[in-house]
Design a protein that fits this description.
64 residues, alpha+beta, two-stranded antiparallel sheet, 45% helix
Length: 64
């Protein structure tokens, strides 16, 4: 979250905003990417491959 090349500083997101975006990925990818929290440790799991281009195209066409 906080390292130089990590998503927080790269996209200028605070922790809550980053978590909201990662949680939205679960819906956008049909559960292929999931945020899980165990014992206070948040981890992102990729359960199956996601085509990044199609994900970006869906985001682009969603009007967001």
């Amino acid at each position: 979250m906080y390292g130089i090349s990590n998503p927080g500083p790269v996209f200028k997101l605070d922790e809550n905003s980053l978590m909201e975006n990662v949680e939205e990925l679960e819906t956008s990818t049909g559960g292929a990417i999931v945020l899980d929290e165990t014992a206070g440790l948040k981890q992102v799991y990729c359960h199956s491959l996601v085509d990044p281009v199609s994900l970006l195209e869906r985001h682009d066409h969603s009007g967001v």
